[in-house]
């Protein structure tokens, strides 16, 4: 039993950073969900704060998130590991890196790729994976994902000239 | 045959077992075959779907499957009795762990010294006919796999399923018994829905209500317990609410407990006043749950007598560690209700150990550095 | 190589068709379940007394309700007048009491513990389903019955009746602000020119501190104060 997220988005005070700390925490969690949903629906892997202006501004309501608010929000999302900063942009994990990793590993296992080496680029943009959910993932994003596989000893990455390759175990 | 009892002296139930009737002050006489010995004593009797359980200083239980030839006896000027024979029969495999073999009497006579014989006998008849102990506990679930097993396979699986479904739904519900059978099939249907990928489908989530399913309790009612309703309700409540209390730091607001308990009962919810009356009996029945009225006016159930003080102490320690806490933060850390958190923080404040800072940022409690010994 | 490609194409086709058919199945199953829902609802209302008498049946029955998402607490009011405390009537008010408690407790973290009785009513009726909605007066009475369990749910009288489910007292100024928010769901200082600013700020801030009010800073510099209990909650 709860109020749907969509209702919050047409509720004016949702766009003002709340002074009550408990309320603010709630608000930041809700907004994190809004950002992640938006990223998921539009397959946004890499973004800047401005990429989300569409959701953080509501012209009908005439409300928008202040710079301070946006700052706090993305700090919060970094802390929760929904975002990994990379230079001036950020990687958005609307699905946890571990979940992506499982998906990739399952594909590797189903297609008999255990023990072979793949280029990371081939993994996300090659012919063999066009029907996979992770198809189209940017390489730097995929690398973060594969790092978790590396951690669980299910794969190992290494550099090949300018690019990266991965071996599955 | 030994029988396991809860802390409140109610029988621990076998899976799928429900209590149908209870009766106090029954004098039970046991006669043993090939033995002139007979035993007698006054018992509180529970008739369940699976057994007759008699509780007193010593307890025993007879599987209903063993009961034969039950009849009314006694009459004018003689106390109403029920008499029946006990004949050992084969029991389903799964029951063996719950019913260790013991010396069975060959005949039992139950004297109903404060009445209730007729209703009890009717229920024995019904329960023996129903043979609930023969119903399988685990219902087989058919699974539908829709992952690349060939179009043919998919079509076939869907066809079979539709066939089952149509059969089930076309039958009317006029008959309670047929409903009882049908409901099992329909549970299958519901489970199938459950097995589908919920996380990706908000509609599926909508279909399932968010109701607390903490496991069904027999649900003491006026029908099953008669004059003993409130005391037995107190006992059942105590047995049930122990686990939720443990999961909530040992304290629950009375209102929350009312809600949780009633949701577990399913349909026959108890009234607020019944609940209040039952709770008042905890003390006199020497049950381990206490009812407390807290500083802010909240009535709460407490596991043991020290839960409030212990929790308050833990909160104060935590505040010394992290600096300050709001009731919401405290509730999250200690997994307790926010009302209870607030009450304990208020208690700490009253004791002079905590002080408050209330403003736009909310209500936070700090350790009182001006504490004077 | 060609065989491999062909195999891959077939696999994709199966997958696509599979999820289509699963979709069909889901839709079908949903509508079947909805139909069953309704039949079950009628059955409950007509046979409530019977079911309650038979604990065996009761268990299976309500397990099923829970599984398919049907709230079993939908008995209807007895035909007799209010004065007589019939068993049916008691069941009816008890059901509502449990549902009202569920709603207030469930929404507490969004509302700060303050909920308009009308919104509580709407949510309770949502739980019960269209065919079993109850009048506001019956909700009142059910909540009134809960008094015996302590001050967990208190009704604040006034023009906009509210339910308070946190252990606190609302003072007159706070109540005044709550009243003023009726209809729109928010207040601002220019609705209170008869008060001096300090008085207004003090009352509003105390409500913010309780989590019952959210601040809304408009682009033009004005500030409005919103009650989730009187705006966000309304369905």
UniProtKB/TrEMBL annotation, chain A:
Belongs to the VPS25 family. Keywords: Protein transport, Transport. SUPFAM superfamilies: Winged helix' DNA-binding domain. GO terms for molecular function: protein homodimerization activity; structural molecule activity. One of its GO terms (biological process) is protein transport to vacuole involved in ubiquitin-dependent protein catabolic process via the multivesicular body sorting pathway. InterPro entries: ESCRT-II_cplx_Vps25-sub, ESCRT-II_cplx_Vps25-sub_N, WH-like_DNA-bd_sf, WH_DNA-bd_sf. One of its GO terms (cellular component) is ESCRT II complex. This is Vacuolar protein-sorting-associated protein 25. The lineage of its organism: Eukaryota, Sar, Alveolata, Ciliophora, Postciliodesmatophora.
From TrEMBL, chain B:
Component of the ESCRT-II complex (endosomal sorting complex required for transport II), which is required for multivesicular body (MVB) formation and sorting of endosomal cargo proteins into MVBs. Component of the endosomal sorting complex required for transport II (ESCRT-II). Coiled coil: none annotated. GO terms for biological process: protein transport to vacuole involved in ubiquitin-dependent protein catabolic process via the multivesicular body sorting pathway. Keywords: Cytoplasm, Endosome, Protein transport, Transport. This is Vacuolar protein-sorting-associated protein 36. GO terms for molecular function: phosphatidylinositol-3-phosphate binding; ubiquitin binding. Residues 3-140 form the GLUE N-terminal domain. InterPro entries: GLUE_dom (IPR021648), PH-like_dom_sf (IPR011993), Snf8/Vps36 (IPR040608), Vps36 (IPR037855), WH-like_DNA-bd_sf (IPR036388), WH_DNA-bd_sf (IPR036390). SUPFAM superfamilies: PH domain-like, Winged helix' DNA-binding domain. Belongs to the VPS36 family. It holds the Pfam family EAP30. It comes from Stentor coeruleus. GO terms for cellular component: ESCRT II complex; late endosome membrane. It is found in: Cytoplasm; Endosome.
From TrEMBL, chain C:
One of its GO terms (biological process) is protein transport to vacuole involved in ubiquitin-dependent protein catabolic process via the multivesicular body sorting pathway. One of its GO terms (cellular component) is ESCRT II complex. Pfam families: EAP30. InterPro entries: ESCRT-2_cplx_Snf8, Snf8/Vps36, WH-like_DNA-bd_sf, WH_DNA-bd_sf. Belongs to the SNF8 family. This is Vacuolar-sorting protein SNF8. It comes from Stentor coeruleus.
